[in-house]
């Protein structure tokens, strides 16, 4: 019993410490300028590529994207990095070997990038077809979507790579 | 990633996405009532922290479009002017809407992620939603008091919340509070309630 509580307390502590460090980094000016801004630029270019493949007229300038005359700027909070920080905190919190955690990091970076691209493309479609819905779609639907799907991705990793299984006896992780 | 994992991942993401869409659609219908209940609950908590001449505060829906905080007291000296109310209402409406999506996050995860049988899942979902609701009601209270005491009604400054969270500390860390309440808290509550029933983590097997 004490052992299971210890595991839970350790997992919670690792989760919150990782989050604190992550959000401190995300708010660091150097990280913003040298990591997050270029990364957001990549997000913008990939969105442009997606629309071009779909036969649309799309251009990217920095973090701004224009599709068929509709322009949106991809801000820091819209690049999926916050959802990735939550995901990584959950990966590090779970007791698993470092190779498995490394696999989790790779799955998370790739998966949440794709999920966030779906969100940004979806926001462009909303902006082009129903612009009056864009504020709500951006502030509430899009952000929640990335966080929820990111945690689903984490659950997949936890099941497949960390042996996480539901137990009817209700025992905590060993 | 092994090939056998792709269909499993697709099924899981599809299931969670479906849960998210259903929860969000229901949320759009229920959000007004939820906000009203949140405000009323926050209002009933006012006497816990307020000066003795504030009996309660109500959170009212006005024509389905606007919301107002109304302080009631016997001496009438504490009632807000229309301008003060509008300022407070604008602030609180923004905040309450920001509190809306973490509940969606929690419910989508609680319903969409595989695990407990239906009966246990329902119980844990209700418990988690109640915990989140209570915390958000308290936060609405904090928001109202911090905003009103700093911006409009300095005499409200002498209350329990102001002593626990100073206006300076609140102002400096407001975004951090939002990130915690909006993004971290629903996931933490979901994890603590739902993941305790999981086992078999391979720590040392590589």
Describe the protein in words.
The complex is a heterodimer of chains A (174) and B (206). Chain A has 174 residues and is mainly α. Chain A has one domain. Chain A has 5 helices and 4 strands. In chain A, strands 1-2-3 form a 3-stranded antiparallel β-sheet, with helices on one face. In chain A, strand 1 (58-61) and strand 2 form a beta hairpin. In chain A, helix 1 packs antiparallel against helix 3 (81-93) and helix 3 (81-93) runs antiparallel to helix 4 (98-129). Chain A is elongated and about 55 Å long. The model of chain A has no long low-confidence stretch (mean pLDDT 89). Chain B is mostly helical and 206 residues long. Chain B has one domain. In chain B, 69% of the residues lie in helices and 8% in strands. Chain B is built from 7 helices and 3 strands, in the order H-H-E-E-H-H-H-H-H-E. In chain B, strands 1-2 form a two-stranded antiparallel sheet. Chain B is elongated, with a radius of gyration of 21 Å. The two termini of chain B are 15 Å apart. Residues 52-56 and 64-68 of chain B have low confidence and may be disordered. The chains are: A mainly alpha (174), B mainly alpha (206). The A-B interface holds A 8, 12, 15-16, 19, 23, 82, 86, 90, 94-97, 99-100, 107, 139-141, 143-145, 147-149, 151-153, 155-156, 158, 160, 162-167, 169-174 and B 1, 5, 8-9, 12-13, 16-17, 20, 24, 97, 100-101, 104-105, 108-109, 112-116, 176, 179, 183-184, 187-188, 190-192, 195-206.
